[in-house]
Amino acid sequence: MTSKPLAVSLALATLTLSTTFSLQPDQHKVLLVSFDGFRWDYLYKVPTPHFHYMMKSGVHVKQVSNIFITKTYPNHYTMVTGLFAESHGIVANDMFDPILNKSFSLDHMNIYDSEFWEEATPIWITNQRAGHATGSAMWPGTDVKIHKSFATHYMPYNESVSFEDRVAKIIEWFTAEKPINLGLLYWEDPDDMGHHLGPDSPLMGPVIADIDDKLGYLIQMLKKAKLWNVVNLIITSDHGMTQCSEDRVIELDQYLDKDHYTLIDQSPVAAILPKEGKFDEVYEALADAHPNLTVYKKEEIPKRWHYTRNERIQPIIAVADEGWYILQNKSDDFLLGNHGYDNALAEMHPIFLAHGPAFRKNFTKEAMNSTDLYPLLCHLLNITAMPHNGSFRNVQDLLRSAAPKAIPYTQTTTLLLGTDKPGAYEQEESYPYFIGVSLGIMIVIVFFVIFIKHFIPSQVPALQDRQAEIAQPLLQA
Ligand SMILES: [Zn+2]
User: Fold this and answer.
1) pLDDT tens digit string along 158-186?
2) CA proximity to 310, closest of 70, 119, 140
3) 72, 81, 121, 142: which is the annotated catalytic residue?
């Protein structure tokens, strides 16, 4: 009779204590996948059975607030640094740095100039400094030498390499004799087709269905390699996409003299560098030029964009309303879909799903920030994070065990450049651990009380008598 409560108490104590510890050592593995330009609601445009399988067997975040500007390079660098663009330095796909006197452009080889990337330290470098290995299939920046290093294994960027070949490399690296703990996988669609067709086109249906097939292929390959239940798989994207129209074009030539400025970046955020002595003239000519264009002097850029404190942000930026397109003149290229707009717009938001030993099952979360991904990745990899703008606390509820086993990265998480508050979570995230331990201790105490009750029955009446005696005067009083 005495063994039952005893066993229950012991089991409860063990359970409580064990839930305070997180991943096993061999479960600190992550595969981060980005399907470029996968808008959050594409999941519901056509049947996407593989995405829905991920949602059911893992976690899904409905709204991810990415960073301004909602372009590819700035957002991919945020995912791996946790920093806003003004802090990591990749402020656009097309940039000019007046101090370096150099340009950066997606369409040119100058993206391989290390100096543009070295205002931050991406996670693969930190992971490698901690003694681990990273493998990257075309993730932006991994084939650039940053702080004297590349990713341990990487495929030099080549858009003609198939998705299947990229997956094969990732699997090979995860199953190698010296395996990677961090895999990064990038795929160009549905961004490419979204630009050409426009997201509202019915032809986007098959494009999204094709991405769903690609996810299905990835899951199948992970299962075949016995990695599905071992690796923490995160499927996300850099931004969404909105429909544009040739009826919604803002032509800068109508308002500005071409000789008065250099257009560094075009649409939907025009980055304008006025020629010497022409600042006021350019600003005044553009300020009220068009009802769907908002023009900011650099120091007036809204704080919520965290887009001021960097030399690569030009003295004037002009931001188009959603769906509007900025061209210098109508002979410039025009695309039916575009992104880069205000990051508060839902259409700019990407997807976020995750599955693996660390994640809860069939769990939906309303919102997170893309800057929160970085501290989450550091937690999953059990490495020390660099200073960042994210918060682990914001995303901790995605995990099965709320209590991290290792909290060492909290030691250095303070914020750069005075941008918003650093993670206030730094102490708070250890609370669940202490709560768990306290609960465990309480259960152990309960166990001892039960033990005493059942194994020393002869002592109990005497004890009760004494307690009654002591209690008497109190009751009377
Ligand atoms: Zn993109």
Assistant:
1) 999 999 999 999 999 999 999 999 999 99
2) 119
3) 72
